[in-house]
């Protein structure tokens, strides 16, 4: 009988621990953006639709940086790719200082864009990086495991924002000093991590993810090694699914605090704490999802979770009080496995096109730039009704997941 593939190898333990920490770092940055969204509405007196440009700046960076990050990684390897991502992350954080001094929404968006270019680089590198750290048959498990720590970072982000920004806002209505000080600390931490990573040794053979399995299983699993990247229909649909997936995420997260404030009559700080709890539920969902994938194929589980979120969005849109607010929290639970699973399913059997494929799937994250301003136009009138819009996204994800096996077989 064939031995069950291991999660990873002992020689990769230190590397996988560090790469997993990267998922946590950009989780903090992503959910902090949603806190800033509400803070800018209050302090800079902008509308919901205009505050949605925060997400446009963050997710738009993925559309700009996705391919360059992949080319950089292909030329210089995973280690240099991680260092570039951390450098841009830190630079964007430090630019919050002049942006706060100028009290300029446009300047803040520039700083967020540069910071997000770092996040896009880290995502383009980290997903194929962690996928390469062991047998390709367990790559779904490794990516979902690493993404669970992205969930931890996602919990930390709104908690930090609630305490240091929204809580401070209650006493200093027009004060951006807390934002400035917080991002100085974030920039310094990221800089130190980048320096530490320079001492981590990364095996050179990891630059080709399809040959990392000890038994060369990754090569054997590539049935059409000469097939061009866009001839892989499962990959093309994965890019589309990821675009709609992150569009749903961006819109759902951008107006979570608004929903808590307007429909549940919570303070912004308390609503941010519930947002942190919803991200905690997403983290739990990833651990549970990783376990369930031992018994349910990843694409089938993805289809089930997409169907559940369609139901959750309908309940949220009806504004049934705590029932609807609970459904809003549960959207993140079912959202949990979507990003990493779409990513790993899209990279299956791409062979030497894996790194390039990862760059295009990361570019799909630009979807998060499209929905928040559009949802904001509806949210200006009724924030609950705006949650009907992500249903479109979950229908696309369901179609990808349910038809995945046929897509893989298509030439």
From TrEMBL:
<feature type="transmembrane region" description="Helical">
    <location>
        <begin position="12"/>
        <end position="32"/>
    </location>
</feature>
<feature type="domain" description="Major facilitator superfamily (MFS) profile">
    <location>
        <begin position="13"/>
        <end position="411"/>
    </location>
</feature>
<feature type="transmembrane region" description="Helical">
    <location>
        <begin position="384"/>
        <end position="404"/>
    </location>
</feature>
<feature type="transmembrane region" description="Helical">
    <location>
        <begin position="107"/>
        <end position="131"/>
    </location>
</feature>
<feature type="transmembrane region" description="Helical">
    <location>
        <begin position="235"/>
        <end position="257"/>
    </location>
</feature>
<keyword id="KW-0472">Membrane</keyword>
<feature type="transmembrane region" description="Helical">
    <location>
        <begin position="84"/>
        <end position="101"/>
    </location>
</feature>
<dbReference type="Pfam" id="PF07690">
    <property type="entry name" value="MFS_1"/>
</dbReference>
<dbReference type="InterPro" id="IPR036259">
    <property type="entry name" value="MFS_trans_sf"/>
</dbReference>
<protein>
    <submittedName>
        <fullName>L-fucose:H+ symporter permease</fullName>
    </submittedName>
</protein>
<keyword id="KW-1133">Transmembrane helix</keyword>
<feature type="transmembrane region" description="Helical">
    <location>
        <begin position="359"/>
        <end position="378"/>
    </location>
</feature>
<dbReference type="InterPro" id="IPR005275">
    <property type="entry name" value="Lfuc_symporter_FucP"/>
</dbReference>
<feature type="transmembrane region" description="Helical">
    <location>
        <begin position="269"/>
        <end position="289"/>
    </location>
</feature>
<keyword id="KW-0812">Transmembrane</keyword>
<dbReference type="InterPro" id="IPR020846">
    <property type="entry name" value="MFS_dom"/>
</dbReference>
<feature type="transmembrane region" description="Helical">
    <location>
        <begin position="181"/>
        <end position="200"/>
    </location>
</feature>
<feature type="transmembrane region" description="Helical">
    <location>
        <begin position="327"/>
        <end position="347"/>
    </location>
</feature>
<dbReference type="InterPro" id="IPR011701">
    <property type="entry name" value="MFS"/>
</dbReference>
<dbReference type="GO" id="GO:0005886">
    <property type="term" value="C:plasma membrane"/>
</dbReference>
<feature type="transmembrane region" description="Helical">
    <location>
        <begin position="52"/>
        <end position="72"/>
    </location>
</feature>
<feature type="transmembrane region" description="Helical">
    <location>
        <begin position="143"/>
        <end position="166"/>
    </location>
</feature>
<feature type="transmembrane region" description="Helical">
    <location>
        <begin position="301"/>
        <end position="321"/>
    </location>
</feature>
<dbReference type="GO" id="GO:0015535">
    <property type="term" value="F:fucose:proton symporter activity"/>
</dbReference>
<dbReference type="InterPro" id="IPR050375">
    <property type="entry name" value="MFS_TsgA-like"/>
</dbReference>
<keyword id="KW-1003">Cell membrane</keyword>
């Amino acid at each position: 009988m064939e031995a069950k593939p291991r999660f990873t190898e002992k020689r990769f333990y230190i590397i996988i621990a560090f790469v997993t920490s990267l998922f946590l770092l950009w989780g903090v940055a992503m959910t902090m953006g949603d806190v800033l969204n509400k803070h800018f509405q209050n302090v800079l007196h902008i509308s919901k639709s205009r505050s949605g440009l925060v997400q446009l700046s963050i997710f738009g960076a993925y559309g700009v940086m996705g391919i360059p990050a992949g080319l950089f990684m292909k030329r210089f390897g995973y280690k240099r790719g991680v260092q570039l991502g951390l450098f841009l992350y830190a630079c964007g954080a430090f630019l919050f200082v002049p942006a706060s001094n100028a009290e300029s929404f446009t300047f803040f968006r520039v700083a967020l864009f540069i910071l997000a270019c770092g996040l896009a680089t880290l995502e383009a590198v980290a997903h194929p990086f962690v996928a390469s750290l062991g047998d390709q048959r367990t790559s779904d498990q490794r990516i979902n495991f690493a993404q669970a720590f992205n969930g931890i970072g996602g919990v930390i982000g709104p908690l930090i924002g609630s305490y240091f920004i929204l809580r401070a806002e209650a006493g200093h209505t027009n004060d951006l000093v807390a934002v400035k000080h917080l991002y100085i600390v974030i920039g310094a931490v990221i800089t130190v991590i980048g320096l530490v990573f320079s001492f981590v040794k990364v095996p050179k053979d990891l630059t080709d993810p399809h040959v990392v399995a000890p038994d060369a299983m990754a090569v054997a699993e590539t049935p059409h090694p000469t097939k061009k990247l866009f001839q892989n229909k499962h990959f093309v649909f994965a890019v589309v699914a990821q675009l709609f997936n992150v569009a749903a995420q961006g819109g759902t997260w951008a107006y979570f605090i608004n929903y808590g404030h307007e429909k549940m009559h919570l303070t912004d700080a308390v609503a941010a704490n519930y947002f942190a709890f919803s991200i905690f539920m997403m983290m739990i969902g990833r651990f549970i999802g990783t376990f369930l994938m031992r018994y349910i194929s990843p694409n089938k589980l993805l289809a089930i979770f997409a169907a559940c979120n369609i139901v959750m969005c309908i309940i949220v849109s009806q504004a049934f009080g705590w029932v609807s607010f609970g459904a809003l929290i549960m959207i993140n639970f079912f959202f949990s496995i979507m990003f990493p699973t779409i990513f790993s399913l899209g990279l299956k059997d791409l062979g030497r096109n894996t790194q390039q494929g990862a760059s295009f799937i990361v570019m799909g994250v630009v979807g998060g730039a499209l929905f928040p301003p559009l949802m904001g136009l509806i949210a200006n009138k009724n924030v609950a009704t705006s949650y009907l819009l992500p249903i479109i996204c979950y229908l696309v994800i369901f179609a990808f997941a349910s038809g995945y096996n046929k897509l893989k077989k298509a030439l």
